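Give me the fold.
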Amino acid sequence: MQTGTHPFDNVSTKVIACAVIVGCLLLGLAGLVLPLIPGLLFLAIAAVVAAKLSPKFAEALRQNDTLRPYLERSDRMAGLSSGQQAKVVGLLVLKALIEGVEWLVKGAMKLLRMAERV
């Protein structure tokens, strides 16, 4: 007998989760082309939601050093109130945005250094 239930047990929740995944994937792909949309953020959200649907996919994502902390944090959120969950999600989004900007700045600096050499 199980003591806990899976967060996506009923069909309607699975359909909503799939819609969120597809929407985030589309926004993420658009964000890779358009600089105004944070593409990596939406791709990461899609990955985290998909990990909640598929334990095998979650295990594969946990092999990634970048995504593992986000998955562990999302697992710990189950016991929090809705207000606390909203705060945590906001902070995670902010952290992902900051890391994305850091990655872009590092890439731009690399390109500038390469351009100076030419």
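The chain has one domain: 11-117.
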